[in-house]
Amino acid sequence: MAGHSKWAQIKRQKAVTDAAKGRIFAKFSREITLESKKAAGNVSSPALAAVIARAKAANMPKDNIDRAVTKGVSKDAGDVEQVVYEFYGPGSIAIVVSALTDSRNRTTQEIKLILTKNGYDLGTPGSASWAFTKSPDGRFTPNEPLMDIAGEDEEKLSHIMTLLDEQDDVQLIATNARGYESSGD
Known about the structure:
globular; 185 residues; alpha+beta; 16% strand
């Protein structure tokens, strides 16, 4: 029975799940580094403690968390900053993308490329954020009423959200579409 190696199948499945975990842990690591930098490494600060709690809930190893906290207070931490992108998607759905990056220009161009390839344009600051309330921990919650979306527009929204979520620097995607309120970590 050639080609029926159970180990080969397990190895492929493990590679897929490890890659997904790696993306999630990298996003948490960037967020922890940023919050650690803001809090000067004080792990009891509310914002840093909240991010660490979310990372632990996602089963991020303690060593990775400690490394990210240390990186935030080290001199070679770099300039990790949070950037927010806004645009209108299919069915006039307001979409806000929050990213953590060490290169604002690179991330902006990557987001613009994804949007342009799918027929959307990046909006100006404030053009879509009016439809959301920003919480102290940086999350965006859509204001009522939520918009209904169906059919082809729903497929397009799901596709663009998947593409944006695959981008390494993207931390959170929020929409005002019912059922798609937010995604990310």
